[in-house]
Structures are given as structure tokens and as C-alpha cells.
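User: C-alpha cells in, sequence out, please.
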């Protein structure tokens, strides 16, 4: 079943799961256990030596999480996946899995504010330098490479600009230097598959569209199985030098030998980073996310179709200065939307309400159905004013670099009836904009 290529089917049947092996339960059960009994001492020793793969301890693996991991991997067209406690943990793990103190990586400037904090401040304190490249010109990534550059990082559909990242263009540059591209595909599951365009690793905040109901925080790292970690041993020391913490294992060699698959990235993240740093996804939360995952292809269609209808309405509204949506971009950026997004342009819409900060705040406060929350990807429609919330820890300079202008409002269009979404936007815009002088004169 997991060989099936259609996302609607993978979401329900993927992950090598037909029914629970212990009980034949059809729905994936929650395995609320910390540990798993070994058959005998040889079995235990083999599991620890990675001679056999199986359950040891829920900090590293759990059968509920396993189904989620395999389904997300199949949905992304990857080979393996490891789930973690949040999207933030997923991006942290992805970087720490190839960078150590003294190394650097190159990230797109178009990033979620929390990721900017992680990259600019916390990783810097660990001795890992993030170099930022403007993705409008893919060659900017090449200019920043040196001997210590270990990976590239970007988001497929970053807000506020909603400029789709040039995945193939940048991954082609990276592959010349044995540098993998890690893509955060949180905002565009199903409608974009970065691994098909050359990315080596995908990370998700499962909290958003995949969980889809605003109930669970989670994240994951997907291994594309399409990157040769041993091609340039100096470029990827963590995969080519003996790991003293694991009996001298050379991860780039030992994992393909033991598994017959190119899944060194995810195996190392699981057996070293989850082992040492913790941050697993709780099985209850994995179960909650599976409920969302099963309908994410269906929801993405409705999110995209509703967002397009909202955009068509907003474009014509007199109190809206500007609408940002991938299908509205022109030139090369517009071409990238068409090249990389299939089946829709996502749920995120940016608007600049006429009248600046005050009008933006009034608009948000006037919304009746939309929720005012720091989230995206809920089945419900959501709105936020990033300059005073999600991006508020950035400096003014960083805010402008991230494209967060004072009056900018981010909408995450839900799956309610489109007429009701538009009606709520219409009444809130009526309350927010400058008085329509033409109408009163
Ligand atoms: N990546 C993106 C694109 C996000 O929007 C977010 C959160 O908003 C994250 C990562 C972090 O995810 P989490 O909140 O699950 O830690």
C-alpha cells in the first residue's frame, strides 16, 4: 500500500500499516508505554548495536509514531522520517544533524520568525553560524559557501512574501559541493514535494496543516534517501568520521550496510540526537496528528480553493492596499509558484489594509469568525498581525528584511464555506478602512 503514489490514499493507508499486529485494530492505536520488553539478551544487544531494528524506548521510537513517520515519509516521497516534539525541534535537529561547533550553514532570508531566532541566536551560542542568502537570486547561496558549510536551509512557501523558494536551482548548486538542501515544507504539504526537486531533507511543523485541527504540537524530519553523504567526506564529517558516542560508527557507511537503504540522516537523528537531546513526540500527540494526516490531502484542496476565492474578493476591495498570494506574483517569482505548487497555491494570504497599523489592528479586532491566533494551518480561518506578535522579537531591520510591514495582516484561510469566509472579511474590512470619502460625498 505504501507504494501507492496518490496522496489521498497514502494519507489513509501509507506507513506499512494495515491493522495493529497485536489486536487487528484498524485505527492506529496509541502505544502508551515508555519501554518495550526484549525477547532475550541477544535481542537486546542486537537492537542496541543496530544489528536489528525494533523498539527499545519511547524517547527514540514508538509504534504509534512509527506509523505517522512512515506515512509522512511516503507523502513527501522520502525514505524515512523521525518525529519530534515540535516543528522547532525538527529544524533544530535537522541542522544539528550535520553541523557542529565551528561549522556554518546557509539559510534563505525568507523564514518563520522562530526559525530566525534559533538560527541567529541560539545556534550561534553553540558555535554554529547561519549565513543568510536572499533567495530571489539562487546564486547568492553559492557566494557564501566555504569549507565549513554543511547545509542549505529554506522554506517552500514562506510568509509574508509567499515567494516560492527556488528548490531545484539551489539544490543543484548544493549538490555540486555535496551540500544538502533542507526544506521546511510546513505551509505546503501535498501541494509541493521538495524531494522531487532535489531537496535532500524535509522538515515539518506537524502542528500546522498536517495535524490540521489546532490541537497538537509536533514536528518531523524526512530523509529523502537521495543524497550521498559519503561523496565528499570532508564536507560531511558527521557522516564520515567515527562517532565516539556510538562505538565508532561511521554513519554514512554503517546505516546503508545495516538497512540496505540510504537513510543515514534519519537514523543518526534518531539514535544520536533523540537519544541525547530528548524532545520526542509523545505517542498521544502522534495519534492526534495521524487523525489530521488522514484528511490533509482533502483539506489542502479546500484550503487552496477557499484562499483563491478570498484573494479574488480582497483584490477588488477598496480598503485593501495590497494582496500577497503565490498566484499573484509576476515574473520569475510567479513562474516559481507555477513550477513548484501543484493543485493550488496554499492557504496563506497576506494583505495590507489601507490605513497602516491602526487599520490593520481594527480589521483583526472586527473579524467575527476568523480567530486571532499565532498559528497557521488550522481547519478554521485564522488571522494575525505579525509585526506585533510572531515577528515581534525581530529588530526593525530584521522585520523589514523579513517583509513584515506595519499594516501587514496574515490570513490562514480555513475550510469553512467560502461565502462565510468572504462575508467575515467583508464586514471586518468595512469596519477597518479609512472612510470611503466618495461614498459619503
Ligand atoms: N516552521 C514554520 C514554517 C512555522 O510556521 C512554524 C511555526 O509557526 C514552525 C516551523 C515551528 O513549528 P512549531 O510551532 O510546531 O514548533
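Assistant: Sequence out:
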Amino acid at each position: 500500500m505504501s507504494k501507492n503514489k496518490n496522496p489521498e490514499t497514502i494519507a489513509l493507508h501509507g506507513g506499512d500499516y494495515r491493522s495493529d499486529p497485536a489486536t487487528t485494530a484498524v485505527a492506529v492505536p496509541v502505544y502508551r508505554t515508555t519501554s518495550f520488553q526484549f525477547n532475550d539478551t541477544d535481542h537486546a544487544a542486537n537492537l542496541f548495536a543496530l544489528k536489528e531494528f525494533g523498539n527499545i524506548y519511547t524517547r527514540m521510537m514508538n509504534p504509534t509514531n512509527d506509523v505517522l513517520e512512515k506515512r509522512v515519509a511516503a507523502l513527501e516521497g522520502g525514505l524515512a522520517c523521525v518525529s519530534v516534539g515540535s516543528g522547532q525541534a525538527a529544524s533544530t535537529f535537522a541542522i544539528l544533524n550535520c553541523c557542529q561547533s565551528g561549522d556554518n550553514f546557509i539559510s534563505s532570508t525568507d523564514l518563520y520568525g522562530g526559525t530566525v531566532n534559533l538560527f541567529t541566536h541560539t545556534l550561534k551560542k553553540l558555535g554554529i553560524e547561519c549565513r543568510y542568502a536572499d533567495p530571489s537570486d539562487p546564486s547568492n547561496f553559492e557566494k557564501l559557501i566555504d569549507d565549513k558549510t554543511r547545509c542549505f536551509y529554506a522554506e517552500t512557501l514562506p510568509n509574508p512574501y509567499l515567494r516560492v523558494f527556488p528548490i531545484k536551482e539551489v539544490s543543484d548548486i548544493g549538490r555540486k559541493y555535496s551540500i544538502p538542501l533542507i526544506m521546511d515544507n510546513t505551509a505546503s504539504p501535498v501541494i509541493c514535494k521538495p524531494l522531487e526537486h532535489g531537496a535532500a531533507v524535509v522538515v515539518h511543523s506537524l502542528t500546522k496543516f498536517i495535524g490540521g485541527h489546532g490541537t497538537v504540537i509536533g514536528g518531523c524530519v524526512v530523509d529523502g534517501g537521495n543524497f550521498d553523504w559519503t561523496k565528499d567526506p570532508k564536507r560531511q564529517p558527521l557522516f564520515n568520521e567515527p562517532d565516539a558516542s556510538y562505538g565508532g560508527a561511521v554513519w554514512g557507511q554503517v546505516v546503508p550496510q545495516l538497512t540496505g537503504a540510504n537513510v543515514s540522516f534519519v537514523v543518526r537523528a534518531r539514535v544520536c540526537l533523540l537519544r541525547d537531546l530528548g524532545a520526542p513526540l509523545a505517542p498521544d500527540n502522534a495519534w492526534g496528528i495521524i487523525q489530521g494526516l488522514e484528511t490533509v490531502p482533502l483539506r489542502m484542496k479546500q484550503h487552496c480553493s477557499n484562499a483563491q476565492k478570498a484573494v479574488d474578493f480582497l483584490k477588488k476591495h477598496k480598503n485593501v492596499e495590497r494582496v500577497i498570494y503565490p498566484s499573484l506574483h509576476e515574473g520569475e517569482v510567479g513562474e516559481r509558484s507555477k513550477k513548484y505548487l501543484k493543485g493550488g497555491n496554499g492557504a496563506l494570504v497576506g494583505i495590507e489594509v489601507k490605513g497602516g497599523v491602526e487599520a490593520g489592528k481594527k480589521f483583526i479586532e472586527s473579524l467575527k469568525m476568523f480567530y486571532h491566533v499565532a498559528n497557521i494551518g488550522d481547519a478554521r480561518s485564522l488571522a494575525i498581525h505579525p509585526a506585533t506578535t510572531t515577528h515581534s522579537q525581530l529588530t526593525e531591520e530584521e522585520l523589514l528584511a523579513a517583509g513584515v510591514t506595519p499594516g501587514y495582516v496574515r490570513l490562514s484561510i480555513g475550510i469553512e464555506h467560502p461565502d462565510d469566509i468572504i462575508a467575515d472579511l467583508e464586514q471586518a474590512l468595512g469596519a477597518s478602512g479609512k472612510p470611503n470619502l466618495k461614498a459619503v460625498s
